[in-house]
Amino acid sequence: MVGIKNVLHSKRYDGDYLKISRLPNGLTVITEKFPSAVSVATEIGVRYGGMDTSGKIAGSAHFLEHMLFKGTKKRTWKEITNEIERKGGHSNAYTSYEHTAYWNIIPKEYFIDAIDVLADMYQNSIFDKKEFEKERTTVISELLQRKDIPRYVIYEFFPKTLYTKNPIKNPSIGNEKTLKNISKNTITGQWKDNYTAKNTIITVVGNIEHKKILRVIKEKFNSLRPGIERKREEYKEYKTSRFTIKRKNLNQMHLAIGFRICNGNHKDVYAIDILESILHERIKDEIREKRGLSYAPSVSTQFGQTFGFLCGYANIKHKDFEKTRALILDEFKKAYKGKITKKEFEERKMFIKNSYLIENETTEEAADTITTFAMLGDPTLFKEYPKRIESVKFEDVKKVAKKYLKPGTQGELIVR
Fold it and tell me: Which residues contact 331 (CB under 8 A, 6 or more apart)?
């Protein structure tokens, strides 16, 4: 893999369409040309996410994300939204474990306006006290909504079964106590300390020219100070656990079983992606199609610079819990023992490669995929990923199953 030092720390990278430049202040600019696109998508990624705000400030990275939509020195919160939507575009943001992203998509003729809105939000937010307190209520409401949805509870708490040291064990959104007590000074301090040029990557996708985008971004982000680039480190983890979260008035139980795997920079990622797809199909077939035990059984993976995990999930009736759990564990065990067929391997390999290409046909999806790969250290994987999948051998998938799916090393979360 081309690593972070070779790509993001170089002053320039020129591919056929994917181009990367690093400005003197440390800001990274990536463009991908879609010659036939009528839209332009712009995404800003910052190396500051949920795992960076644990303890008394848990949830503050997500709170900060909300506040950047609440007004700047020259735009009200309504003008931020309307300037994009009245031109037919839309915008949003999200906070992941390791980064936060802000994006918009708009017809090509207005892309400079769209970049200007993001630049204004990113550098000139005013954090009005009245808006801050209103948004505190909104963020707490979002937290409570998530707590009412078992699938979200699984998403937020499952990492705790696999990690004791890595901060991703804590819910990114925080909790009611921390959200009620986070101060405006804390949020603005985080913004000033972390939303800096060396921590920021800007991706623009559409029928655009790299040189023109560079000129626009140099102009619009001229007040962004260099700052210090956030470095991430892995945590040595040895323990896993099983625990239950109780919720009132649930009609079903929700079960998650999974394993720690490699981080997103590891060479095993591509074989694991194929293994994940094989397991997903097997568990869906065994639990839903053959037995009708669950509406939405699944297997998924999540990767970051500091973590990786594979998780099987099923929503089930209380009486079917033990049967379903045994079926999921049995499929993991079969894979661990090498019981994978070449037919499965070839089918899921083709599926992953082709579905990736289809999903990334849109400027919006492509911008987010490029930004995500950039946060891992290598945005050129946007082009390379299908080739990496194609290069995976049958034995590679069996090896990663043996390496990561050892029976008895799984974490388990039950919501009931």
Answer: 279, 282, 283, 286, 312
